[in-house]
Write a structure and sequence with these properties.
The chain is mainly alpha-helical. It folds into 2 domains: 6-230, no CATH class; 245-322. The chain has 12 helices and no strands. The protein has helices at residues 6-29, 41-47, 52-64, 79-85, 91-112, 117-163, 168-178, 183-195, 200-211, 214-229, 233-282, 296-318. The radius of gyration is 24 Å and the shape is elongated.
């Protein structure tokens, strides 16, 4: 019994697409673009001799360039994710990369499989566009997750700075130097904008809206209210840090509680597809008797729709706001 290797080749080609996109990103912008760098990217650029104003303009351009590109066809599907990931790639570059990896996927399908030409033409763009979307989405999730974990420490650092007598702008500057990316560069931009005359509350609000994180909105509102009405900002931020940590703990607890339901939904939706693939690999002629039946294709479409609907329903049921 011969087992087809084509499903494995499809998976390897998709993984190759992801590796290619990540490689292009690192080659184009260097290792300093990585969120795991010990020195945050803004300080790294300044230490290399770039002017502070030039660094601020470059980072602001990168972080805001995707906001104005949401009307571009096709690209609008991932513009919000690309903005939250703060990708240095421009929208045009990302679209070009989709084309490049689609061509690479087509060549891989041509060399590694015996798939018919129409199927290759359909699969290659799906792999290219899907691979780039998956890569951007994973970058955005990783960055937002790191910001959520860093934010309580950053707020507490600002509280300590305020209590020893530093002004708020200096506290923001200290945070931009003492913590790691991605939050370090975000606060560094706020510090630079404040130094050039922009209101700190407005800068924080802009950052919160760009990243889309509720805790950052709380921080922006707290600072804005204190600027208008006065009060002890250190005490306000100290209370905010405790609230953020409590929300974070509650969110993790809710995530742990709903994990079983989420994975049950994924398993129940994936099992029929996996079973179909395994049956076709082990016995390619298993469905030959029923494939010519007039209800076969409609039944397959119905099952596919119901499996997809199951994923969405389980996601809605387990999406608990904290």
């Amino acid at each position: 019994m011969a087992i087809s290797a084509e499903p494995l080749i499809y998976g390897l080609i998709f993984i190759g697409v992801l590796v290619l996109v990540e490689g292009l990103y690192l080659v184009a912008f260097g290792k300093s673009i990585s969120l795991n760098s010990r020195v945050n990217r803004r300080l790294d650029m300044i230490e290399k001799g770039n002017k502070r104003a030039d660094v601020m303009d470059k980072l602001r351009k990168e972080m805001n360039q995707h906001k104005g590109s949401m009307g571009i066809p096709l690209y609008s599907l991932l513009a919000e994710k690309a903005q939250r990931a703060a990708l240095a790639f421009t929208p045009g570059q990302l679209i070009g990369i989709m084309g490049i990896v689609s061509v690479v996927a087509f060549l891989g399908l041509t060399v590694g499989t015996d798939t018919d030409l129409p199927i290759r033409i359909a699969l290659a763009p799906a792999m290219g566009i899907g691979g780039v979307f998956f890569w951007v989405n994973s970058k955005a999730k990783k960055r937002i997750s790191m910001i959520e974990e860093q934010l309580p420490d950053a707020v507490e650092l600002m509280v300590r700075s305020l209590r020893v007598g530093h002004p708020f702008a200096s506290a923001v500057q200290i945070v931009s130097k003492e913590i790691k990316d991605p939050l370090a560069s975000e606060f560094g931009i706020i510090a630079d904008e404040s130094a050039y005359g922009r209101d700190v509350g407005e800068a924080l609000k802009d950052m919160a809206e760009r990243i889309g994180l509720q805790d950052l909105r709380f921080l922006a509102v707290a600072v804005t209210i204190q600027q208008v009405s006065g009060g002890n900002l250190a005490e306000i931020l100290d209370g905010l840090a405790k609230v953020i940590r409590a929300r974070f703990r509650l969110f993790r607890r809710v995530k742990a509680i709903t994990a079983e339901a989420q994975w049950s939904g994924k398993f129940l939706s994936a099992f029929p597809v996996v079973a179909l693939i395994v049956i076709n690999v082990l016995d390619p002629h298993y469905y030959d008797v029923v494939m010519d039946h007039p209800y076969f294709i409609p039944a397959c479409i119905f099952v596919g729709v119901m499996l997809t609907l199951n994923l969405f329903v389980m996601r809605v049921l387990t999406d608990i706001k904290v």
